[in-house]
Amino acid sequence: MNLSEYQGVWVFIEQNEGEIEGVSLELLGAGRTLADKLEVPLAGVLLGDGVRSLANQVVYYGADEVYIIDHPVLKDYRTESYMKGVIELAEKYKPEIFLYGATPNGKDLASAVATDLSTGLTADTTMLDIDLENRLFEASRPAFGGNIMATILCKKHRPQMATVRPKVMKALEVDHTRIGKIIEETISLKEEDMRTKVIQIVKDVSKKANLADAHVIICGGKGMGDLQNFQLLYSLADSIGASVGGTRDVVEAGWLPHHLQIGQTGETVTPKIYFAVGLSGAIQHTVGMKNSEIIIAINKDPNAPIFDVATYGIVGDAMEILPKLIEQFNELKNHTGGELSYV
Amino acid sequence: MHIVVCVKQVPDTKIIKINPKTNTLDRRSAPAILNPYDAHAVQEAVRLKKLVGGTVSVVSMGPPQATAIIKKSVEIGADEGYLISDRAFAGADTLATSYALSKALERIAKIKPIDMVICGKHAIDGDTGQVGPGIARRLDIPPVTNVIEVTEVIEKDKKVVIKRKLTSGYEIIQAQLPCLLTVEKEINEVEYSPLPNMIRAAKYESIIWTVADLENVDKVQLGLKGSPTIVGKMFSPPKPEGGIRLEGTANEQVNKLMDLLMEKKELFTLQTTK
């Protein structure tokens, strides 16, 4: 493999019924930084049915080029059709770096593409950089276990690929003056050749309202002691209009369903206020919440790493602190007869 | 129907301890278990077998002691278990792992053709979820990831109807058999093993293969040599400054916090609803 043939940074643009996923815009922001360091173009890769009109948006968020395959067979995401399109593009235009959102579809696609291109893929990365001296992509992710990051390299294969966790990178400000190049390709696929069919897509609105859009989140860890103590978090949540989430330990213990897990293998959240109660703050957890605007940590252990990311830290027993906090908030509301609201 | 489940032995992350000096995990502190997602995968295969009949096999790549998770799979209800174990597999990343497992699956298919492969969504020690789709590509069968329900198996048409989890909600997919599924935990509850299974598992001897037992293997694609990714460096992330540590008694700390929050007018306001 002649590595120098591979140039440019690509971002897979995930779209759902004509709307670009937030993570793809974030990746255009992150990809812009990488492309500028390498002095190469940044391209968005856009597949779907009737998606040409989205190309401008990809450019406005930072891309220099947009590769488009617009075909009825690409209406809904399917591994086999999307994979074929993406592989054909990558083989023809040879990018050196290729980023995907670490969403169900992004991870599914990237895994299949990496296999066919026989190249390296790093999962769920949270930090991206370039080693300019060796012209290598440095994809870092929290390593299993401790408070440590591992940088994964792919030295001899191209493209260097990674899935990137949503809500970790920052999208650029939209710039309507940007102009990009549109490259349209076709795909040689017929519906009859497909081995999978999407029969129906059922959107879940209730779950979304829970964590991803919550202004205030109360997250509890195993330090709450038991399920009964954990209920106190709901009292605080009621008094300030918050949603309750938990760490992996809490979900493993069955105190909460998996969709309320915050962290590396759960949700990534960015609320206005995040209460971290009775949790130590392992990196697997903090990657999922550290971009919250205000983080309030309550923990008995003054050395718990959660205090390093906290805006305000209270060293103390949650069972003592929480009732006082609930009382204060309730008093505040009763006193003024108002409701807390979040801008 | 012949269903093959790919299983992995992992350290139990619930119990594993971190060495505070080196910030790395102390693998000796953790017992090795069947990856929890794979337990659900085996359970689902056993459920489908009860529904439509057939055989459930499991296959794993790992050191000789990984036969423990094959026994565990037999407890859940698997009929046969294969372990591929060889130094040549050591150091494999997800690409090399999917290659080795696909070679094992090809060999199993010669014994009995495979209708469905099931994997857990990911293993809890690597959290990548890349091996399942990788195997599907190598076997050229369609992958369906993040499965939360196998709704229907239509044997005569060789089709299966599946619910697949999305970022928000789910989709209903019809896939042709053979196909590969990766399953989420909510797909089922792993049941307590009935006594006959326990007895069978205790006596069960896994079938162990080395590279030499597999066919048409390109050795360059195995293990460390076959792995395009390497760990470049390990580092502690730059420590954030940390914020204000509140001081005093519990009451004083809570009062101080309330004062600080009330100052954050741009985020947090008290509106009179009257």
From TrEMBL, chain A:
Instruction: List positions binding FAD.
Output: 247-248, 261-265, 278-285, 299
| MF (Gene Ontology) | electron transfer activity; flavin adenine dinucleotide binding; oxidoreductase activity
- The membrane spanning regions, by residue number, are none
Provide this UniProt record's keywords sorted from A to Z: FAD, Flavoprotein, Oxidoreductase
Cofactor, free-text remark? Binds 1 FAD per dimer.
Output one GO BP term: fatty acid beta-oxidation using acyl-CoA dehydrogenase
> Which InterPro entries does the record cross-reference, listed alphabetically?
DHS-like_NAD/FAD-binding_dom, ETF_a/b_N, ETF_a/FixB, ETF_alpha_N, ETF_asu_C, Rossmann-like_a/b/a_fold
Task: Cite the Electron transfer flavoprotein alpha/beta-subunit N-terminal domain residue spans from the record.
Answer: 9-198
The family database entries (SMART domains) matched by this protein are listed as: ETF
**Per its Swiss-Prot or TrEMBL entry, what cofactor is needed?**
FAD
What EC designation does it have? 1.3.1.108
Protein family (similarity comment): Belongs to the ETF alpha-subunit/FixB family.
Identification of the protein by name: Caffeyl-CoA reductase-Etf complex subunit CarE
Species of origin: Pseudoneobacillus rhizosphaerae
From TrEMBL, chain B:
Gene3D superfamilies named in the record: HUPs
Concerning InterPro entries, the annotation shows: ETF_a/b_N, ETF_b, ETF_beta_N, Rossmann-like_a/b/a_fold
Q: Could you confirm whether the keyword Oxidoreductase appears in this record?
A: yes
Task: Keyword check for Isomerase, yes or no.
Answer: no
**Domain called Electron transfer flavoprotein alpha/beta-subunit N-terminal: residue spans:** 22-218
- Select a single GO molecular function from the record's annotations and give it: oxidoreductase activity
Q: Which UniProt keywords apply?
A: Oxidoreductase
Know the name of this protein?
Electron transfer flavoprotein small subunit
